Amino acid sequence: MCRWAAYSGEPIFLEEIVSRPGHSLIHQSHCATQCHTAINADGFGVAWYGERPEPGLYRDVMPAWSDPNLKSLVAQVKSGLFLAHVRASTGTATSRNNCHPFVHGAWSFMHNGQIGGFEAMRRQAEMMIPDTLYPNRKGATDSEAIFLVAIAEGLQTDPKGALERTAARFIALAQEKGCAPYLRLTAALSDGQRLYAVRYATDDFAPTLYHRWSATRGGMAVVSEPLEDDEGDWTEVPAGSFCTFDGDRVLTEAFQPLSLRAAA
What we know:
The protein is an alpha+beta fold. The protein has seven helices and 13 strands.
C-alpha cells in the first residue's frame, strides 16, 4: 500500500512535510510502519499550488529516498497547499504516468488503496470514463480511473457526492466480478482552494489516515502516518469519513456510497 501526505495552511517549504520530519514521507517510503509493506519504492510525486490555478507537478519512477532532484525541489519550493505521494504498486507497471498525484485542470488527486480484481474489470472500468475525459487517461492505475470517473460525476461542484457515486459504481463492478476487497479508498484531493480527504473500505481494513494542526507551521497536515514519533496529538480519521479542511477547522461527514446506502 502507498503512503501520502498533504498540507493546507500558511506557505511552507515542502520539505517540512516531505523530507525534514523524523518520520517524513521520504522516511515512510522505506520505513513505513502502518501498512502491509514498509517499502514504497514504485515512484513518487508532488503536486503543489502557487500563483496559478493549475498545480505544479513533479513525478518520477525512482524511489523517493534516492532522487536528489526531489530533495532539492522540496527544499526550495514553498506552497500553502500541496499533495505528496510515495507509491507501492498493486499490480500496474512502474511508470511516470502511473505515479500519483494525478492532475486535471485545477484538481489534484492521490490515493492509497485498491479496487478488488481491477485487472479483471479494467475494460469495464475504462468504459466508465466519458469520451470527453478519456484523453486524460495517461496511465493504467485504478486510482487514475477513480479520479476521472469522479470528475465525470461532478467533482468540481460536489466533491463528497461525486466520490460516493464513483465508489458505488466501482463497488458494484467488483461485486459483480466477485473480487474482494471490493474497495479500499483513502485519498486526498484539492481544487487549489480547499483540501479534502476520504477514508473508506468495504471491509475492516481501510488504510490509515490522520490529521494535525500545527501552530508552528501555521497549517494542517493530513497524512497516512504521523510525521513525528513523539507527537501524540494526531487525530485518526474514522473509517467511513469524508473530511473538508478549512484553516484549523475540520468538517467530518459520513462517507457512504449510494449503492450501500440504498441497500441499508
